[in-house]
Amino acid sequence: MSKIYKYFGSSVFELVFDKEGFCGVKCSLPKDYNDPYELFLAMDLNIPTEYLAFYSDVIQEMPQFPTSCFSKSPIVSPMWAHYANNHTGFAIEFDLEKLQQHFDGNPFWDVDYREGPHKSLGDIVQRAAELKKPRYTYDLQRFAFSEAYFSKYAQWSYEEELRFVDTTGVIEKVAGNDILYIPMDCLVSVIIGPKSDENLITLSQEAVEEWGLDWYQLVIGKSHPQPYFRSYDGTICTFKDGDILAHDELCDNCEEPVSGGNEMCPWCSITEAHEIDAAAGNPFRLLSEAGQLEDYMRSMDAIHRE
After folding, report:
1. Please, what is the angle between helix 49-59 and helix 134-150, to 10°?
2. Which of 170, 186, 202 is the last residue of a domain?
3. What confidence score (pLDDT) does residue 77 get?
4. Taking every pair of C-alpha atoms in the chain, what is the biggest distance, in angstroms?
5. I want to staple 178 with a disulfide (CB 3.0 to 4.6 A). Which of 17, 157, 171, 243 is the partner?
6. Of 163, 186, 209, which marks where a domain is finished?
7. What's residue 42's pLDDT?
8. Nearest residue to 190 via CA among 99, 109, 89, 68
9. In this structure, what is the dihedral angle of CA atoms 256, 260, 263, 267, given to the nearest 10 degrees?
10. Are residues 154 and 278 in the same domain?
11. Which residue range is the domain that position 12 belongs to?
12. What is the mean pLDDT of each successive set of 10 residues along the chain, which is 306 residues long?
């Protein structure tokens, strides 16, 4: 089972589940995306001007389909910071195969991250512009559609994005918004952020009990290199190979995930003897005890300002 994830701000939890038996996901048109480079049809501008003019004319007819963005990972910290309001919001885990079956005919496709235009685009434009046959213009528009909706510049690759595009008209208009209503059986879990308030914790736990979903809270640890999860029953889990799974090796003291057979995480491995040795060898402590630390810091700051 492949999983994908959608990040939300804390204030919309009840709104997302407002329709009985469904999860409502907002869609946007390409022209309304926040990022000015979203869906920008990157093109090699070194082609002949007449080809560029033909390309420009063809892509003006590019349809504006409602689109919603997902991620293939629930541990993308910038996504939690931006879309989940600085880790106070939540994410929903979906079963991708069930989504594809339910919305058959509408693409759920990975975003392709690249440094520049697709190498084939120039050749496709040239063929369509020179031969002026409908089938080649059709090929160009189809290719441009894929580029427009499913390619981004490489600097966005951390998002691990996958997009849904409504090409068959399945969205519903709600208060002026395009909403994709997803059946609850396509959902797997609700994940709340590490800074979520008690209200969201309570709402989300009550909701997953009613719907039969898993519940997790994201945890930002001191020593584990990536965020991990604590389940409803306290089980510590990590994200591995596209799935949230129980982690067998835990620190005996703080219960953070560890590896390599270690019983303690690096921080909990520090003993009182280590602390005493570290303090004895800290030159700042020696300067402080001699009453010279403030003068030393002022002199060093002055050197670095010069």
Report:
1. 70
2. 186
3. 95
4. 87
5. 171
6. 186
7. 60
8. 89
9. -60
10. no
11. 3-186
12. 95 96 94 58 75 84 89 97 97 98 96 84 89 92 86 90 96 96 98 98 97 98 92 97 95 93 93 94 92 93 85
Q: Which residue is listed with tokens 């979520």?
A: 196
Q: Is residue 118 one of the residues assigned to a domain?
A: yes
**Which residues on neighbouring strands pair with residue 23, listed in sequence order?**
182
Q: State both tokens at 109.
A: 């496709």
- Closest-CA residue to 65 (of 37, 102, 99, 27): 27
Q: Provide the 10 A C-beta neighbour count for residue 56.
A: 11
Task: Count how many Cα atoms sit within 13 Å of the Cα of residue 115 in the half-sphere of its side chain.
Answer: 0
Which ranges of the chain does DSSP label H, i.e. alpha helix? Answer: 13-16, 49-59, 77-82, 96-102, 121-131, 134-150, 198-211, 272-280, 283-289, 293-305
Backbone φ and ψ for 300, nearest 5 degrees, come out as -70, -40
Measured CA to CA in angstroms, residue 180 lies from 2, 26, 49, 280 at distances of 20, 6, 41, 62
Query: What is the reported pLDDT for 147?
Result: 83
Return the structure tokens found at 31.
């022209």
> Distance between CA 16 and CA 9 in Å, rounded?
10
Residue 306: predicted pLDDT? 72
Q: How many domains does the chain have?
A: 2
CA distance 87 to 191: 11
Q: What is the reported pLDDT for 35? A: 56
Strand 151-153, strand 112-114: pairing: parallel
Rounded to whole angstroms, the Cα distance separating 250 from 266 reads 12
What is residue 12's DSSP assignment? G
Tokens of 195: 């800074």
- Residue 264 has which token pair? 């303690």
Token readout for 93 is 């885990």
At 107, which helix (H) or strand (E)?
A: none
Which residues have CB under 8 Å from 262's CB, separation 6+? 249, 251, 269
Residue type, 236: I
